[in-house]
Amino acid sequence: MDKRNLMLPVMVACGMPGFSQEKPNIIIVNVDDMGYSDPSCYGGDYVETPNIDRMAAEGIRFTQFYTSCPISSPSRTGLTTGMYPTRWGITTFLQDRAGNAANEQNDFLDPSAPSMARALKAGGYATGHFGKWHMGGGRDVKNAPSITRYGFDEYSSTWESPDPDPKLTSSNWIWAPTDEVKRWNRTAYFVDKTLDFLSRNKGKPCFVNLWPDDVHTPWVYENDEASQRESAESFSIVLKELDNQIGRLMQGLKDLGIDDNTIVIFTSDNGPAPAFDGHRTNSLRGQKGTLYEGGIRMPFIIRWPGVIEPGQVNGQSVLCAVDLFPSLCAIVGADLPSEYRLDGVDMSATLLGKEQAVRESPLFWEFGKTKKDRVSPHIAVREGDWKLLVNADGSSVELYDMKNDFNETVNLATSNPETAGRLKQKAIEWFGEAYRQYADHVIRVSADGDPTCAGDAWENATTLQHAVETASQFPSAQIWMKQGTYDVEASVNIDDVAIYGGFDGTERLLSERGWKANPTVIDGGGTVSPLRNFGLDRTVRTVLDGIIVQNGISGSADNGSGNGGGAILANGAKVRNCIFRNNRTADGKNGAALHCHMGTVTIENSLFVNNSSTGNGGAVQVGGGVTAKIINCTLVNNTSSGPGGAFGTGNDASNINIYNTLAWHNTGGDGSPSSYGQNTNKDGGGKIVSMNSAIESDSRKFADGDDVNHIMLSDNNTPDLQNPSQVTGYAGADMTDGEWGAYSYALSEQSLCVDAGNAALTSGLEYDLDMRRRLSGRQIDIGCYEYDNGEPSVTSPVIRVAVDGDNACDGASWDRATTIERAGELAGMYATAVDVWMKEGTYVLDQTLNVDKLRIYGGFDGTETALEERDWNEHHTVIDGGRKISPLRNSALESEVNTVLDGLIIQNGVNHDNANGNGNGGGAILTNGARVSKCIFRNNRTKNGKNGGALHCHVGKIHVDNSLFINNTSSGNGGAVQTGGGATAELVNCTFSNNKAASYGGALGTGNSTSDVNLYNCIAWNNMGHGTYESYGQNADIDGGGSVKSVNSAVESVSRKFGDGDDSGHVVLNRDVTPAFEACSSVSGCSYDEALWSDITGSSYMLTEGSICMDNGNDSFVEERYDLRGNLRISGECVDMGAYEFFPSTAVDKPEYRKAGVVYKNGRLVFTGTDVGDSFAIYSPDGIELRRGKITSDLFHMKYDGRGLILVNLNGNVSKLYVY
């Protein structure tokens, strides 16, 4: 009998006292970017993996094991700490400083975080890390702690680490041909390191991270072809070598005589990339970088001979990488850290195969908060058999049944509102609590602080200088400054600190401070420039927030050529909620308050007053090659010797983006009002853009055509400030706080700057400089102070437009209807997206319309007072590109938009090569968050090989329902709709017919393996791709593309995408099996032949009696109540496929393809396609006549208050109609 089996219950229950060789060695093999089904024991068929398979046969293979994040650094953080990585500010892969800052993450994992290695080392283990690290270091991050700080005795790692092994890193990149250890030998090198470490520590238990990185692209092998380093063939060769090395590891354990006493775990950090159309995930949806199963469900094998019964498969227990820390410590009797509560739970008995525990606590994930092109929502929760995904703002709710639908094909959020609502709230609350919870190290300071104190509490407050020196030890440090005046005798290095003012010394949270009530002043005393970046040539994490910087002065002896009186800042620095006053430069230097030295510097919600420059830039100077973003700032009474009294630029490479900003009463070198100028030329400098800003300047930079809603201030056109000082420039050394406080630069009620900004240009700050709500009334104000004119408008404004609208009108009512072009301009004046109601008619556009903030609804006759009163089928609203332009396009293609296109006909669009999105999209290009409903796209085209004849889906998720795509042509791919890389097109109850593409996708095209298409209740037939009847294809491969799913859809296609196992209810159409449309056009693709136009517009794609598409849809995907014709969406047993719902016998033959019928809508019986004089009669089901009459107009309708089934006799033809 194996003694360790007798000891196991003791070990699990209370741990083993003392240090003993009976404690098992632990090796965690954590492979980089391995797909769920890469090993053959998980269904992989690229290459046999006999050594990995043998591990599974000799241990337990788990099928519901999750990583803590679908990308490298946070995944490794979760495994290391036993906590969700978002708590520690590691949210995506660690990159350079600028990239980390942009993703709101730290540069490295805080070494004070819990560490499994540190806990095991305290429990008597020798610890080693061999392989990829990626939790800090590499690129331009030079201050990451050594791996030993996390509890490892020895290590050898790759370039993404603080101290890479020189044999692996001849360059600062993943690999190089000059590396001593070649990429194809790297795993062997790490296995050798592991076995050597184990052999040298045979007298004590060992813990080893063996983290190979060769399954991460590029896949390189000896004498390979460089162009094939992301091919399936190269992957197979690399995977085979990884398996060989796993075999070497396992044999090495036997050779050392420690195999029986070693726990070996095999898993991966995240899903694969590329996923090869789900082939590497066993058809699980998604891949690396998504919260779908393909991104987070990992292979997981654990083996411990003599303890774990071999040959087990656990398909019931849900485990996560965060569970390994507490579970392994429980197995070996090591103590868990007490400073932080781990998120992982003890699943030791399950890991050892003694039970198959059902997880009691939910699992959470976060990934993609800052990603504009995220494929999945950025929060997920798994509780029992339910998994929900959602964004923090509550959007994009997806609910899946993991027991019956682990491929995540059917979103059950609508049909299970109670479960969806409960999990949605739980997920959002978790994210609010966990996001960066422990990411920032807080150091508290006060004006009378003790330099020997650590600043870990207000009673232990330290000095500003000591806090800055201490901050460099942490990945992200915040300095909280208690109110008071801090006299600075030497410039303070603020390279990697975030300084926050406005504390009274009692606060526990940053949100509790108040910079208005608790002024925090940093004073240069007229002798020094108080705040300076010392590392001017690098990216910094500097934040200045809620402080007053005054009486600074710079000169020739200071860095940055002596520029910057109050401060000098480098790339990445941010200034918010600050006041710069009474600062100067000497010796002809620039930027009295602030000099922007390098890269991009952002300044928001700040006031600059009475600063004086002996050079240029009375307030802010922007150096060569620098871009300053100045948002909601007020600059008044500043002076300079150069022409830039407020803003100055150094040369033609100095750029300023001025948003919602007020600059007035600033004077240049000649004493005249002049807020802007380049050092020697008021019309010089780089790109100077004013958007929704009010500036006193006659520089031609504000008349060069790139400004939007620019207001020119002057003596006769002032901002009406409440009580500004009349003193310009430096106000003297004796100004007191009380004297400064006597002046006010807030707006008066009548100011032209009230409600004149654009909230979309801000970062979304909650308060203005006076700590009043930043958004009041219908729109944000210009400047740093918000005039309080009521609660922010929560209802979306409605702008009404007409073909003959007046450009001078605001569209507030139908009799003040404006033009569609003016509606687009007016939308920029509102904080939220606006509703545009379009009166019937044809709108021929001369210029592309930016629809980022537009929700466009067609179908109005010009009398409606509510959206529900419109009738898109009766009152056609046509947006026409005039065969010259692509009429509707998202501009911010990498952002999430609120675009809605509803009840429109988009026709005659054509792309241009110089348009955004690489020129794709004939009728429209849309991006993440856009929705299309009840629209017709017809006769649009692309030229010059571009994709998406009607519509190009650029990135993220685009939803289209109840829409018709006919006679569109692509000179590239996607005759109707093209889905770009990283995009998901969700198409519900749409019909695609008579479209044409040069490539395979006659109707639907995809760009690459990350382009996904979900078809629900759709029809695609009679489309021509690559010269044959073919509805789908990737650009160059009919079988290519990402995840392409057909659910209850009928598609004419021979692509293997519709036979790969992820489709359900799919109907294969062909020349013999057709959808039986009423009157399909004889024209294929787009045509400019006027003789064929009536054929295109007069066609009908409604279903006829007996169509295979009738009652063959899936009701679960029905979101809209009405179809494209305005009929109820479900008639009969279940929903039909396509854009039109079949209603039996409601049509009467008319000449020229016209159909006469009747529908019920909004309390009315609406007769369509009829002629004046046609007769009708209405009967109850038992034959009682209820109403009789004649059609008296072309738009005849009548009120009807009844309910239930009625019979309608129209010109002798009797039909049934259900009135609801």
UniProtKB/TrEMBL annotation:
Modification 3-oxoalanine (Ser), positions: S72
Chief location category: other
Entry GO MF terms: arylsulfatase activity
Ranges in a coiled coil: none
Official protein name in the record: Sulfatase-like hydrolase/transferase
Gene3D superfamilies per record: 3.30.1120.10, Alkaline Phosphatase, subunit A (3.40.720.10), Single-stranded right-handed beta-helix, Pectin lyase-like (2.160.20.10)
Assigned GO CC terms: cell outer membrane; extracellular region
PTM summary: The conversion to 3-oxoalanine (also known as C-formylglycine, FGly), of a serine or cysteine residue in prokaryotes and of a cysteine residue in eukaryotes, is critical for catalytic activity.
Localization per record: Cell envelope; Cell outer membrane; Secreted
Bias-annotated ranges (Polar residues): 672-682
Keywords: Cell outer membrane, Hydrolase, Membrane, Secreted, Signal
Organism listed in the record: Leyella lascolaii
Family recorded in the similarity comment: Belongs to the sulfatase family.
Residue span of region Disordered: 669-689
Domain Sulfatase N-terminal intervals: 24-333
Pfam families hit by this protein: Chlam_PMP, Sulfatase
